[in-house]
UniProtKB/TrEMBL annotation:
Residues 10-64 form the HTH cro/C1-type domain. Keywords: DNA-binding. The keyword DNA-binding applies. One of its GO terms (cellular component) is cytosol. PANTHER family: HTH-TYPE TRANSCRIPTIONAL REGULATOR, HTH-TYPE TRANSCRIPTIONAL REGULATOR PUUR. It comes from the Bacteria. This is Transcriptional regulator, XRE family with cupin sensor.
């Protein structure tokens, strides 16, 4: 993957939306200095932090990283057509453990719906810093087992089991089994 300048992209979007660093920090409920540190590439945000900041602008991760993607007219997708979001996840999230693979169906922004094919290798964990974002998400476990935590609720889901929750609740996904777990999920609005 080409080097992506997170700081320059954030500065560009902040300017497009007519926000000062302080206004964006207030909208995202993050310290003012964090915006400055990211824009000058003195700090690399975690995925959770970047999502929170982008929420202050009103955009998601896919729009941040691929603003000119144009698949909104496409209806059918072969496995090779799915957009791999894995490298973006790992480049921004230092506390991610194990191998997680995320592949997206089409242009999530154009449809206001993100559909993901997710694979969690044994030991994979989205991290102790639980995820939170303004959306609703759900999914169905296709194979393997995955531990899903939403707020204080924790469950180990097996093939055929499903989940649906408000993504503002802190949540986490962990594969505590000995084989890969595959999940098909959906999120609206998109967050990655």
């Amino acid at each position: 993957m080409d080097d992506f300048d997170v700081g320059a992209r954030l500065r560009e979007l902040r300017s497009i939306y007519g926000l000062t660093q302080r206004q964006l920090a207030e909208a995202a409920d993050v310290p003012h200095g964090q915006i400055s540190m990211i824009e000058t590439n003195k700090s690399s945000p975690s995925v959770a932090s970047l999502r929170k900041i982008l929420g202050g602008i009103g955009i998601g991760m896919s729009e941040f990283f691929e603003p000119d993607e144009g698949e909104s007219d496409k209806v059918f997708f072969a496995p090779s057509d799915l957009r791999d979001l894995t490298s973006r996840l790992y480049s921004e999230r230092a506390d991610l453990h194990g191998k997680v693979t995320l592949r997206q169906v089409g242009d999530a922004r154009a449809h206001n719906l993100q559909i993901l094919h997710e694979t969690y290798e044994p030991g994979a964990d989205t991290g102790e810093a639980m995820l939170e974002h303004a959306a609703t998400e759900g999914g169905v476990v296709i194979s393997g087992e995955i531990e899903v935590t939403v707020g204080a609720a924790v469950s180990i889901l097996k093939a055929g089991d499903a989940y649906l929750f408000n993504s503002r609740e802190p949540h986490r996904f962990r594969n505590i089994g000995d084989r890969p777990a595959v999940v098909i999920s959906a999120c609206t609005p998109p967050y990655l």
